[in-house]
Design goal:
7-stranded antiparallel β-sheet, signal, DUF4367 domain-containing protein
């Protein structure tokens, strides 16, 4: 009887481990974000929450400060989600992570260079942003917002690419 119980427990643990390994790694990161951000994310339909992608790594001085979404009808989390936005603040600059759902076109795509991210995705790099489409057809844009006083940012384009590389 003890052996049977031990065997059943091991099978249950194995099944639970397998199920948890299929989960979106970003969900664990989001669970460490401020409560107001988690509450806003929780408003979204599960199929959107399951596909949210956020950086696993940020520069030391960066922290998440806000999350919002755009939907049709406006402010209806049960409507069609068009865009999600995470805002990260640092000492001398901010980052915006926009994810667009559906067809997207960019006006200045020809003036950007292309890099291959560590996950194999091709990304377009411009002066202050990195853009790519993931395997789900979602379009991600990581943008650097520098201070208006012209003092510059301590986040470089290489940092933006590394942040993009940390997103699974």
């Amino acid at each position: 009887m003890k052996q049977t119980l031990t065997f059943v427990i091991m099978i249950v643990i194995g099944i639970l481990s397998a199920c948890s390994s299929d989960s979106n790694p970003s969900q664990e990161t989001i669970s460490n974000y401020p409560e107001k951000v988690q509450d806003k994310v929780a408003e979204l339909p599960e199929e959107i929450r399951e596909t949210l992608v956020v950086p696993a790594e940020l520069p030391e001085n960066m922290r998440v400060v806000d999350f919002d979404y755009t939907s049709e009808p406006v402010n209806d989390p049960d409507g069609k989600i068009i865009l999600t936005t995470f805002t990260y603040a640092g000492d001398s600059s901010n980052l915006l992570l926009n994810t667009k759902y559906g067809n997207v076109s960019y006006a200045n795509e020809k003036s950007s260079k292309t890099v291959t991210l560590e996950n194999g995705m091709e990304a377009n790099v411009s002066e202050s942003s990195v853009r790519w489409e993931n395997e789900n057809g979602h379009h991600h844009e990581l943008s650097l917002i520098e201070p208006p006083d012209g003092t510059g940012s301590d986040v470089t384009m290489d940092d933006l690419i590394e942040i993009a590389n940390s997103m699974e």
